[in-house]
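My current task is to audit a protein record that another person submitted. Thanks in advance; the entry in question is below:
***
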Amino acid sequence: MMYRLMKGDEINLNDPALFSAADLTFLIDLQHRAFWEEEPYGQLRLDLAGRPTAYPIWRMRQTRVTKEVHDSPLYRVAEDIIDRAGIRQGAVGADPDDVL
């Protein structure tokens, strides 16, 4: 399954070289929390990058968001999900070139 980021890039969620089963579980849970439970944008951001135990940081064996973490497909998809939730909640605005 392809995931289209707001910036237009597509990421293949079925590629086992990019995503483990645990990664996909994290993304599904994140999307559920963001859109079904309407968890606040700020809390979602904290769970993405606000602490060393945030899943994408922990998964890449880092202690903070490094360039490697930020550029990873996992982080990019998770950030996109959270940004979409933030736009929906009115916490942030979309960039003019975003495709919603």
